[in-house]
Each structure stands twice: as C-alpha cells, then as structure tokens.
C-alpha cells in the first residue's frame, strides 16, 4: 500500500464560519463586501459560464484600475507572508493555494496595461485593455477600481467618471463568466498642491461612488466600499498626495492594527488588500467550493453544531480540513484518512482550546482518487469524501 504523506502544517484556530474574517481586532471586517443569496446566485451563474472556457486559470485574479491598483502596495504584496493578524497562517495557506500560486501575484504577471492596470489610466483606457487581458490572463475573478483620473483631468473628450463606461467593462467580463468585484474609489485631497484640476473633487467623486454602489446592487455583484472605510479612518489624512495613500509596514500585506485602524499612520493599500482577500475567499467558498451561505452569515448558529469541512474539494495538491463544533475545551479531536477499501492511512490527534481546528493535507505523494476523511469529536464521528484531482 502506497504510504501517504500528511502535513498538518497548522493546528490553528480556524477561519471558522466567517471565512477569513476575525483575525484583526480593528473594525475592518465591518467594511468587507457583504454576500447575500442574490449575489451568490449571480456569481454561480457566471461560474457555470466560466467553466466552459477551455484552459482558463482557476483562482487567478485580474486587476483593473489605475496607479492605486498598479503600484507595488496592492496585490503584489501577497507574494510576501501576510502578518499582523491572529489567523495569518490560515490566510497564508489560502492565498498560496489559490490566487497567489503559479507566481500570479508577481508584478510581471499582474501589473501593467497588459494585465488591465496602469498609472494615470482613465476608464476608457482600462476598457480598451479588457479583451487583451482576458485573452492573456484567462482569470476567474476581476477587481475593478477606476475613475480617480477621470475626476482629476476629464471633462468633454474623455468624460467625467460614469457608470455607463463601467457597465461596458462589466459586460465584457460577464460575457465570459469572469466574476467581478467592484470597489468605490478612495477620497481625493483637492487641497494638496499636486491637485491642479481647479474644481471641487467631491462634487464628482461622491455621486460617482454612489452610482457604483447602486450598479453593484442592480447587477447582483460584490461591492467593496473603500471610500467609506477611508472617510471613517482618517479621510484625506491617509493620503500622501492628491490621490495616493500613505504606506504602512514593510508591504501592503501587513495587517496589523496600526495599519488597518487608519489615521495618518494607516494605509488604504493595506485595507484594500485585506478587503480584497476576504471578498475573494468568500467567492471561492460560496461559489466555487459550494459552501452554504448560512455558514458564513450565521456564525453563532454554526458554532452550536459539529461537523467537518474540506476546501477546496476536489483539490491538488493541498486542501484544508476544518473541524468545528461545541465540545469541551479539553476534548480530543482525531482526524483520520482512509482509502475506499477502508484501510486507515493516517491518524492525527490533537487537543483544542477553542471551537475550531484546521489541518492542512498535502496529497502530493498520492495518486488521483477518492479518499475518506473521518473526524472524531468527543463521542461523535463525521465523514467527508475528498477528491484528489491531478
């Protein structure tokens, strides 16, 4: 019998029913995208369409935007290890096994007009990059934050920012099943000497952001209100010039309280990365991996139940086995892996001091096939079929 190699890399308290939320002691989770059944159903329809695209990249994320997206403080920092939150091990596992694999977060693979973003870009320019980006990157998800440069310099020939142009971009993504995440654009400091447009930015920016929110609701798409987070956490005090954020920490994947609580020492780049991470995790959980919506929205109800979750499933080469339930703090949890013939392949025992455990299973040394995971919680046991698909 071929031996299994099981690597239980972290015996950490897991991402529980809130996904990857809950690791920060700031209020950042209150500003993350809210998923309801309408949004889930819309995205499931897109995912079904996306699966018809041969050779497209599962979990790859495209970035559509201007310099705030193009800079090295957004998305690219996920090539580093996220720090500053209690669940950073779970975050690291998630990003390494999904959107950050295959070096997709390296600048040469996610930054520049060929990938849908560039400094100084206006909405019509981003629109022109969408088809080439789709052909080259073949993403599953696309983030869209655009309009800041339209507020600054446009009028007449290139138009003030308007959701009509945003709709054109969305239609191109939706036509091939790519799942969009819409973000409001951050505040603008028109008192900064670098602002030379000569008009009040808020008279254009605020109505545009309001339209973006309505557009997302009408189309049943996830929306991240970065502008509101900024205004509630320092406003233009977050900015280093008229449009760009101060930096915080070694990179934008530092999720410490000092970075995510805002103020002059905080950064909306770090907040952007965190909120994007949460939204993408939720999309994969609810849409790609088929987790019921209530498991993310009814945490208290879920904490009173017991069970086992495996995600992703099917997987290659790693997956996370999650154990949750209400048992005594000192109860022993045993995770076992069986072949379909009933042969016990591996057992891991552990004690917990909270409601959740997570185990990382690496099947790199196994052939493709179906296996059975069994978790024993106190006097109960739960089974889940897991599929290794190479």
Q: What is this structure, in a nutshell?
A:
InterPro entries: Secre_tail, SGNH_hydro_sf. This protein has 390 residues and is α/β, with parallel strands linked by helices.
Walkthrough of the structure:
With 390 residues, the chain is an alpha/beta fold. It has two domains: 28-294, 3-Layer(aba) Sandwich (Rossmann fold), CATH 3.40.50; 298-388, Macroglobulin (MG2) domain (Immunoglobulin-like), CATH 2.60.40.1930. It is built from 13 helices and eleven strands. The protein has helices at 37-50, 67-70, 88-97, 107-110, 123-137, 148-153, 163-175, 202-219, 226-232, 257-260, 268-288, 294-297, 299-303; strands spanning 61-65, 141-145, 179-183, 223-224, 307-311, 318-324, 332-338, 344-351, 356-362, 369-377, 380-388. A four-stranded parallel sheet has the order 1-2-3-4, sandwiched between helices. Strands 8-7-10-11 form a four-stranded antiparallel sheet, with no helix packed on it. Helix 1 crosses helix 11. It is globular. The two termini are 20 Å apart. Mean pLDDT is 84; it is low at 1-17 and 295-306. InterPro entries: Secre_tail, SGNH_hydro_sf. Keywords: Signal. Residues 1-17 form the signal peptide.
What does the secondary structure layout of this molecule look like, with pairings?
Blueprint: H1 37-50, E1 61-65, H2 67-70, H3 88-97, H4 107-110, H5 123-137, E2 141-145, H6 148-153, H7 163-175, E3 179-183, H8 202-219, E4 223-224, H9 226-232, H10 257-260, H11 268-288, H12 294-297, H13 299-303, E5 307-311, E6 318-324, E7 332-338, E8 344-351, E9 356-362, E10 369-377, E11 380-388
Parallel strand pairs: 1-2, 2-3, 3-4
Antiparallel strand pairs: 5-6, 6-9, 7-8, 7-10, 10-11
Helix pairs in contact: 1-11, 5-7
């Amino acid at each position: 019998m071929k031996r299994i190699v099981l690597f239980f890399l972290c015996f950490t308290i897991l991402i529980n029913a809130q996904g990857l939320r809950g690791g920060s002691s700031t209020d950042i989770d209150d500003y993350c995208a809210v998923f309801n059944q309408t949004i889930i159903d819309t995205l499931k329809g897109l995912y079904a369409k996306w699966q018809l695209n041969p050779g497209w990249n599962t979990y790859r994320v495209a970035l559509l935007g201007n310099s705030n997206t193009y800079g090295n403080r957004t998305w690219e920092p996920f090539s580093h290890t996220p720090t500053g939150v209690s669940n950073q091990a779970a975050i690291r596992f998630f990003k390494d096994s999904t959107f950050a694999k295959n070096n997709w977060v390296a600048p040469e693979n996610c930054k520049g007009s060929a990938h849908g973003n560039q400094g100084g870009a206006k909405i019509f320019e981003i629109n022109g990059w969408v088809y080439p980006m789709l052909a080259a990157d073949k993403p599953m998800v696309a983030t869209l934050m655009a309009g800041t440069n339209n507020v600054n310099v446009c009028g007449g020939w290139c138009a003030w920012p308007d959701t009509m142009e945003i709709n054109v971009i969305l239609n191109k993504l939706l036509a091939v099943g790519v799942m969009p995440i819409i973000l409001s654009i951050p505040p603008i400091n028109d008192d900064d000497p670098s602002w030379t447009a000569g008009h009040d930015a808020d008279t254009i920016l605020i109505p545009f952001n309001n339209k973006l929110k309505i557009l997302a609701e009408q189309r049943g798409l996830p929306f991240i209100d970065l502008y509101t987070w900024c205004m509630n956490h320092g406003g233009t005090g977050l900015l280093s010039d008229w449009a760009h954020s101060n930096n915080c920490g070694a990179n934008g994947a530092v999720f410490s309280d000092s970075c995510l609580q805002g103020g002059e020492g905080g950064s909306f780049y770090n907040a952007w990365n965190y909120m994007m991470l949460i939204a993408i995790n939720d999309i994969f959980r609810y849409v790609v991996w088929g987790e019921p919506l209530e498991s993310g929205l009814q945490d208290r109800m879920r904490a009173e139940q017991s069970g086992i979750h495996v995600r992703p499933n099917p997987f290659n080469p790693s997956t996370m086995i999650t154990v949750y339930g209400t048992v005594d703090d000192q109860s022993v949890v045993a995770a076992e892996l069986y072949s379909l013939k009933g042969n016990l392949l591996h057992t891991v025992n552990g004690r917990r001091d909270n409601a959740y455990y997570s185990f990382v299973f690496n099947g790199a040394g196994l052939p493709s096939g179906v296996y059975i995971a069994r978790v024993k919680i106190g006097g109960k046991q739960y089974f889940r079929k897991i599929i290794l698909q190479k």
